[in-house]
Amino acid sequence: MQAPDVSHLRPFAPTVRGLTEPDHVRDAMRAAGPLVRAETPAGGPAWIVTDPALARRVLTDSRLVKDPAFAPPRWDPVTAGLEATAADQPSLTTLDGSEHGALRKAHAPLLSMRRMEAWSGRVHAIARRLLAELAEGEPVVDLMAGFTTRYPLTVLLDLLGIPLDLVDRAVDGCRRMFSTEPGGQAAAIGALAELAAAGLGGDADGFAAELRERVPEGTTPQQLHYHLFGLIFAGQLTTDASLGFHVARLLGPDPVETAGLAEATLRDHPPAPYTLWRYTADDVELGGVPIPARSPVLVDIQGVNAVPGSGPDLTFGAGPHFCVGARLAVLELNAVAAVLAADHPKARLDGPYGELRVSGIGGIQGRRLDALPVRLRG
């Protein structure tokens, strides 16, 4: 049995479409079968899971690993956008098994429900301050340009104990992560990792200093800085895109219930349309399809989430690699909704909801609104 080839649908191509326009590519992939095959931007095939039940099995299948050392031999790491291998740079996103479990055990308590409840007031205060500063300026502000990146980064630096006068450097570093210049991404990683070290001073008392005490024995300072870089970059990337869709719904033409809206937004507009790459450690069979060793496998998160009755959404994954920062993302979205309702009750979109545009740069990267013009003073 072979998986249907959907390369003609160009599932990894850059996209631009209206916010209310359906995603015909995902509909077509799901119609083609529970597991489909497509040509990757880095060359060679990838297998994409479109069926909810198979997706959950894949996300908990130990035969599929996250370590880029198992990526196809022909792949250029830069072209494919790969992290360093687990041997060169261990991280939550490249380790599996007991090593991943130990590192996750160090991170998880920092982002638990109890800790997020304790930090809720500070997160709301940051949202309130940033939105108030914007409201004092021009009548119309583009929240995608002036808020959705700065807000989650300010929250993250505050939680980590990094001085907030470094937010501008963090914003610049996150933007440079998508640089196409040779060595641009590596330079951005280095800059953000160096910035993260500012939370590790002798009198630091934020999450960064706490993580230093919790990481597995033998973790080097360089590895700790990379873990902190991962928290900053992944935390910003997750919330940035979601905020635009969330605020658009809040200020759109149709009344919405704020209870559960953050979760609904994240389900309908997941920050990443696909999982990060997984690779077959050996020859395997998935859904009756034989797949060779060192083959890339993805779950179509956005497509699976859209299947009626598909169960809990996969926005933050499932199984051992479920995102440790999921509660923080929901808290950040809920805080913005609460502040808009309380402090800016007359806020509205500056233009029709249906004219908002969504763009994606392609590959497995997420999609975000091109712009979100808002009149905070009504």
UniProtKB/TrEMBL annotation:
This is Cytochrome P450. It comes from Phytomonospora endophytica. It comes from the Bacteria. Signal peptide: none annotated. PANTHER family: CYTOCHROME P450 YJIB-RELATED, P450, PUTATIVE (EUROFUNG)-RELATED. The lineage of its organism: Bacteria, Bacillati, Actinomycetota, Actinomycetes, Micromonosporales. GO terms for molecular function: heme binding; iron ion binding; monooxygenase activity; oxidoreductase activity, acting on paired donors, with incorporation or reduction of molecular oxygen. Belongs to the cytochrome P450 family.
